[in-house]
Amino acid sequence: MPIESTRAANIVKENATEAARALLQFAEQKYGLTEVFAFVHFNGCIGAARALLDKLGLQDKGVGRRYGLAGVIYATSMMNKEIFMAQGSPIQYDENLMDLAA
User: Can you tell which superkingdom this protein's organism belongs to (predicted)?
Assistant: First the structure.
């Protein structure tokens, strides 16, 4: 990869991290949200997305489906499986997807 491409990729990573942190901070300050979740679909840039969520301090909570799409569920430390399984939640855990998450 040329030096310019590597530098550009690093800038994009830094900007994505800063933007995500700012969004979480805004959500907490403006709306009092302290618990958040993210869903990473298997059909995208799963490695980059998971690395970003790890950097932000969200935890891998397992695999599941959201609106029929398979992916990995990330959330703040206080959120657990029972919260996601609550009535009306768009997320369903699916232990059969574990191999895809690796």
Answer: Eukaryota
